[in-house]
Amino acid sequence: QGQNHNLALDLLHPLRHSLYQPNVSSRSNTFLQSQTTQADVTNTDTTTTPEIIGTVALLVPSSDQPSKFGSKSPVQPPSYREAAEQLARKIKQFSDGRIAAQVVTPSDVDTSSVLNSNALIALGLTTPQDVQFLSRTFRQRRTAGEEEQSSKMCHFAVDCGDNNYAPIVGPYDEANPSVVSEIAPWSDVASGKRLATQMKDLFEKQTSDEFALALMLFFNRFIDKIPWVQHSIDVTWEKGLGNVEEIYNMVTKCGPCITKCLADENCKACIEALDEIDTRDQVASYRTVVSYESELLRDFSLCILQKNNIFGCTAEVPKIPYVKPLGAFRGQEMTKDIAKGIMIGHLEGCGDAALEGCKELDVSWKVACGANVAYDQFPSQNQLFYPSAKGDSMWYDPVFRVETIDGRNVWCKRHYRVRNEKVPGTFRFSVLDNGVTSDEFWTIVDVAEDLSWIVFHYAGAAGAVGQRYIGGLLCTPDGTLPPESEMEKIWDVLRSAEIEPWELFVVDNDDTSPGALEAGPPPLDFYRKTASVIG
Hints:
It is a single chain. The protein is an alpha+beta fold. Helices cover 31% and strands 19% of the residues. The protein has 14 helices and 18 strands. The strands form three sheets. Strands 9-10-11-13-14-15-16-17 form an eight-stranded antiparallel beta barrel, surrounded by five helices. Helix 1 (80-94) crosses helix 6 (208-222), helix 5 runs antiparallel to helix 6 (208-222) and helix 7 (242-262) runs antiparallel to helix 10 (295-307). 52% of the residues are buried.
């Protein structure tokens, strides 16, 4: 559902800056180590033990209480402990198992990790006893950091009442600010100050993806490179003179594209919007780019990123978590033909490729809810899966509505090639989207025998912009949630893919909403009417 990482268009961003003004959880107190890996291209479950480069302690209340996570999900919010246990899994996923996370409370017998971990994030501590423990812990960490002069430490308090618990990020301490952070923006302490603001904003969004992203940014900057956020297509102080080389290569290799883009009002608006964000923030980047899509931007990103790879980005499809595909359907062992029929779902006009129970609709499925914050914020999500006219491959056309940052409602559409992987029920998706290639690995996790619902998991990467992503989807024929009697089974299916129900975002599929009416009918057959002829 891939997120169509045409975020590459953010490469316009540098032109706005001068060189010198850049912009399986357990309730025990043991670190959660990497235990499984995502299927590779052959869907082989190869268990590895990666080297641990750092640790995170997630400090939650002694007496459990509801958190603010999951505000847009179809279930009640998780407790802080439940949320933290899933956040620990997400940290493992985003770090490829190289960061170990622990959930701890002030009343635990062993609380040494709150002092020894690289990162400490306190969540929802408000009782006098818990607050006293938190304040003492922050003081002890601050003192230890000063004595050791270590930059490999950070701590934050999130949703912990009105007290001001000054954060630490690397060498930057908000409680003891250094003048260096103001007069030397290229310094580590200035970098820590900028990152502190960014991490605070991400934590306050109360989603698991953005929470994990914040921590990856810290580890990547001050401890070791994290592939999830290692690459940036922004002009930054951290790159130093590398900014000069990148801008020079952009101008010399793609000068005509740049000239055309800067002369176009839509391109200029995109540059100005992207000027305000870090393009590694996939939520902000994705919404911005889809708000300004055009052929001009597509050609620009194709030249800068896909053809010339100006920023030297790479990204591989994530391998954690490993998600087991559905092994049988309607009493039969899964085959590639059955899996193809499941994907086709309810789409009309697919003949013998469709399965019994196909409703002959204008879509295969509609997304009822999804677990990727960057994509599933969008309403009216339609999926079309249909056979290619040649060979055994398929096409996948997601058609979804975007509420742009300037208030318009428009339809966006994508056109993916879908190929079978070695294990039936797994697929490789690829798309050249706005000049950037995305590669995705999809898994059918489970599906109702009457095709009333299906659960997908996907993991993807857009190498040209150095971005990786994972997510899951619960889909139905009409985009509404299945009946309550089915939900507990579905939640268990999602948990088998290491997705908690509270991480889901319910999709607005109301065709009579003001936004849907403004956008008009979705262009569902835009690609299908030609794909059936040419391939």
